[in-house]
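Protocol step 4 of 6: structure prediction from sequence.
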Amino acid sequence: MLIPTDEQIRALHERHAPTPEAFERVYTHCRAVCEAAEQLLVRAAPGVNADLVRAGCLLHDIGVYRLYGPDGRLDGSRYVSHGVLGHELLAEEGLSETLCRFCSHHTGVGLTSEDVRSQGLPVPVADYLAESPEEELVMYADKFHSKSEPPVFLTAASFAAKVRRFGPDKELRFKELVERHGEPDLAALSDSYGHRVV
């Protein structure tokens, strides 16, 4: 499988971003998630492909661009669909299924077909769960940074409180991930990006 370079991934973002502001918001988030994941790689299982994790982090949110309207505003009501939209975008670009899955399988701590049905989510009914160690690491690292306005880094406790509203099983799943992977150095990331930690 061919893994795109950082430059190729940045060019993909630039090509699909509807505005410079959208590019800045999404690509900066992807870079922050990538740096968090690279910190977490030290505890990863042997054999985890670091280059694949890097590419997955830099690509995982590219579908957000498809949620911007002609007025340059993000349609937050369909935000949960950004992963599936990113999967479609990367497939259209000819990227492998392995890379496409980083988009569709990183939302929350994983979406099941039951989640999709019971919550009436605007995505095809299917399981969107991280299956490979690389998918899990990208999905997990993503929880520590938010594209909110202004963007922020989230502590494990902050994200656990956020995910609790989707059910105790989601909070438990996240806490298991924290136990397995540890936490990135958010103070260092905050200094690097100028985004506060909440």
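Step 5 (inspection) to follow. The longest strand covers residues 145-146.
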